[in-house]
Amino acid sequence: MIGLGLIGGSVLRGAKAAGRTVWGATASKEDADKARAEGFDVVTVEEALHRSAEALVVLAVPLPALPDLLRKVPAGTRLTDVTSVKGPVHDAVHRYAPEVRFVGGHPMAGTSRSGWGAGSATLFEGAAWVVTPEEADDHLNDVMRLALDLKAHVVPTTPEEHDEAVARISHLPHLLAAVLAAVGAGGGPLALALAAGSFGDGTRVAGSRPELVRAMCEGNRDALLMAVDDALGRLGAARGSLASTGGLQKTIDAGHEGRNALVSQPQRSAVSIDLSKPGALAALRNLGSRGGRVVGLNGSTATAETS
Amino acid sequence: MIGLGLIGGSVLRGAKAAGRTVWGATASKEDADKARAEGFDVVTVEEALHRSAEALVVLAVPLPALPDLLRKVPAGTRLTDVTSVKGPVHDAVHRYAPEVRFVGGHPMAGTSRSGWGAGSATLFEGAAWVVTPEEADDHLNDVMRLALDLKAHVVPTTPEEHDEAVARISHLPHLLAAVLAAVGAGGGPLALALAAGSFGDGTRVAGSRPELVRAMCEGNRDALLMAVDDALGRLGAARGSLASTGGLQKTIDAGHEGRNALVSQPQRSAVSIDLSKPGALAALRNLGSRGGRVVGLNGSTATAETS
């Protein structure tokens, strides 16, 4: 485990709790000291990378730190990551460490606190863990097994589809919360004194640490721009309709349908995917695109739920 | 009490629980039957309006129903309302019932369910109850006493300031939630499968009944247009900054400050306002503008909290 913040520290704890042999490395002396105090094996980045050719190396460092780190990864290393954006990470791996074996990863877990102290072995229980494999092989199976050991379910997709999806359901919500909080506060003390449920809910994530929100949103620039343009188009259309006819039916109805689609997701049924057969990669990606997920792995047979 | 839906029904129950003599009227046979079954005195609108010249008449009907109703209100009646917009209500009163004594009102309580069955005597406990008096007199005191009997605190302001404030902290949040829900659902099953806290929080109120959200937002058209323009300007600026420099610092920092202003509102100190003195109306409005509120009324002395 390289990087022992909220996510890295939680993976390290959870993997140890699942019975794995683990060791970690971090540039943060504070996180290293805390992890050692809890009995974890913390070594230098070089030692972490070279200790065992059999190890699965997990990168949990901010995007800007990746190029320097990737240059140090030995050829043939089995690598994954837990960064919140996938296209730029795949690009960096292809550029700086083309000889490693890589499957991208992104556990969808909270980010409002940070550092080793904020983590826990159970952070990923019940969460979606996105994987972005470029082929279906034993390395992918190992990465999925790690996620399943941490009691997450696995959502396979491509880097592009992942980045577009999280722009819509994670990065745009943060941006709209910031805009709403600023407009509300612009109404002065009276507006804030009258604020109740809808404003409280709509601005909650604006309370997150600004530098973390920026890193997340700015790191997914291209996909976020598309999501922002979609939102600007819809909000502009609502504005035009309100100003001309006075009506907001199209906007409000579309929002209501979208919310219903979230809260009443269709029933899932169980399927098996044989990962040793040709077409397994396409089958996995297709599963993810349809809102499905891998919930178990027995040899090379994935147990999945699809809708 | 004219109108026995969520708000009107809750006022009727709460006023009775506070020891008042109450009666109600409604155009909804369903609400009338339910209220009668619980032992309430339900009469025709005409009887409700004419039964006692001493009564405080509370209108809890949708905005479009106001003109017809106001034409029936006898001159000299002491009137208030609980509608979510105030400028249009004051205009309607001046136009259709210029001889009544009127103080506008708006209790800031939930609207996601509706009808008599959704109400309760305790709906307004701890809530802000906006009043929009045009003069400080015994009628205003009676309206404030009703709100205080229902355990709300009273926020005095003007119709214009009220409508601008609720556009920012109530109507815009509903509109942005609708836009976000539609953009998220536009990402298909994968996006919805990955949606977690930020999308859930940001879209929650898009689950409210569309016709209620529309009535609320469309009824406050002028003020909502200004709030939407503020939001469009900020979101457009964020888009421009992300596209040109890649940075979102200004947007994210402003949102974080706004959220902080909401959650860490300044400590309040107690003040008294003598409502019998000249300047009382200005003092009340000033209190509301600064985020203050009336929490008690003893004779003509208001106990208030200001920040």
From TrEMBL, chains A, B:
GO biological process, one term: tyrosine biosynthetic process
Key words, A-Z: Oxidoreductase
InterPro entries xref list: 6-PGluconate_DH-like_C_sf, NAD(P)-bd_dom_sf, PDH_C, PDH_N, Preph/Arog_dehydrog, Prephen_DH
Keyword Oxidoreductase listed: yes
One Pfam family it belongs to: PDH_C
Gene3D superfamilies: 6-phosphogluconate dehydrogenase C-terminal like domain, NAD(P)-binding Rossmann-like Domain
Domain Prephenate/arogenate dehydrogenase: 1-273
Molecular function GO terms recorded: NAD+ binding; prephenate dehydrogenase (NAD+) activity; prephenate dehydrogenase (NADP+) activity
Protein origin, superkingdom: Bacteria
Family the entry assigns: Belongs to the prephenate/arogenate dehydrogenase family.
Protein name: Prephenate dehydrogenase
Organism: Lentzea guizhouensis
Lineage: Bacteria, Bacillati, Actinomycetota, Actinomycetes, Pseudonocardiales
